[in-house]
């Protein structure tokens, strides 16, 4: 993927990218350098993270993930005051607090 242009100003919220013959836009904070091109930066945990059976701290912990571990998220949703992401963990579906995730080596960190 090649970056064509990123928005001006301090936010730089979107970048125009080209992948093969396709041109589109990607959220700038999700991009990371990779050689002479860019990739969608992987999500990693920022600290020891609890994986819960449902979104929210009142639900059972079904596992923990060490800091700096790459995770695959299927979706995230915002709730009142928090945001939880759905993921697959050791053969189960679980939820992790979005505040415990960051894009590794992102060009424009969130």
Largest sheet: 3 strands, antiparallel
The CATH topology of the largest domain is: SH3 type barrels
- Compute the separation of the termini in Å: 21 Å
Backbone structural class: mainly beta
CATH homology superfamily name of the largest domain: SH3 Domains
**SSE ordering:** EEEEEEEEEEEEE
* Architecture per CATH nomenclature, i.e. the level-2 architecture of the largest domain: Roll
Q: What count of helical segments does DSSP give? A: 0
Largest sheet, order of strands side by side? 1-2-3
Shape: elongated
Query: Hey, roughly how much beta strand do the residues contain?
Result: over 45%
Structural account:
The protein is mostly beta strands and about 110 residues long. It has two domains: about 1-40, no CATH class; about 45-105, SH3 Domains (SH3 type barrels, Roll). It contains no helices and 13 strands. The chain has a three-stranded antiparallel β-sheet, with no helix packed on it. The protein has a three-stranded antiparallel β-sheet with strand order 9-6-13, with no helix packed on it. Strand 1 and strand 2 (about 15-20) form a beta hairpin. The model has no long low-confidence stretch (mean pLDDT about 85).
Which labels suit this protein?
110 residues, mainly beta, SH3 type barrels, 3-stranded antiparallel beta sheet, 13 strands, elongated
